[in-house]
Amino acid sequence: MQNKDHDNDHGSSAQTIGSILRKQANWKKLWFYQKTVVLYQMTYVFTRRFLPKYGDRTVDQMVQAARSGKQNIVEGSADGMTSMELEIKLLNVARSSIQELLEDYEDYLPAHGLNKWNVGHPRYDTMLEYCRTHNYLSDYERFFEKWTDEEMANVGITLCRMVDKMMMTYQEKKVNEFTTDGGIRERMTAARLGYRTNQRETIEQLQQQMDCVRQENEKLKQLIKDLEDS
User: Fold this and answer.
1) Are 184 and 19 in contact (CB under 8 A)?
2) Predicted confidence (pLDDT) per residue in 186-210, tens digit
3) Are 85 and 183 in contact (CB under 8 A)?
């Protein structure tokens, strides 16, 4: 026979933990994460094809910035279960890395006498629409060995800007959640207060039941005394 009280305690503990820990975000479904996967793989190919194999620190800087942007989204989403504050900080690191990568791509174009595609460029609108509506690596990797450095750098710039804008919106949402719900310390405090409130309510209910039992007991004693005296 199972101990019902033990089962109830276990269920209560599970509910308490569930109320403290936040649900982990599925970062793989975030559009800006999907685009950072593209950026990382594309940057690796870009540096291999168009930058010197030796003696240029830009290669490592660009690849590491692209990787940092991707990985800090993953780490931030995982750590967000226990610390929204840490999640927000890691997302900020990811944004900073993507901004660094953006600057490297922007610097590359004038340094090599190439054009930056802005509004009015004949290929700008087509590129913008493609980057806006395509998130997966499979949508881009077939072009990695075909694009010129000008084409690849402009796509990289566009993706970096999109990721930065999406992440800024996502961060603002997280900050609002943090302001409303608080971090783990606040959630633990709320859970403790809720537990104490439940304890008080249980004690009050038991006290009321005991008072009723005492009253019934006194009535029975009086009834027995009356019967004995009659």
Assistant:
1) no
2) 445 544 545 455 566 666 676 776 6
3) yes
Q: Is the distance from CB of 163 to CB of 33 less than 8 angstroms? A: no
Q: Which residues contact 132 (CB under 8 A, 6 or more apart)?
A: 162
Longest dimension (CA), the chain: 120
Nearest Cα residue to 117 out of 50, 194, 126 = 126
Question: 112: helix, coil or strand?
Answer: coil
pTM, two decimals, is: 0.69
Q: What is the pLDDT of residues 95-127, one digit of tens each?
A: 999 999 999 999 999 999 999 999 999 999 999
Helices (H), the chain: 4-20, 31-50, 57-79, 84-111, 124-133, 149-181, 184-229
Reference 46, options 123, 175, 149, 195; nearest CA is: 149
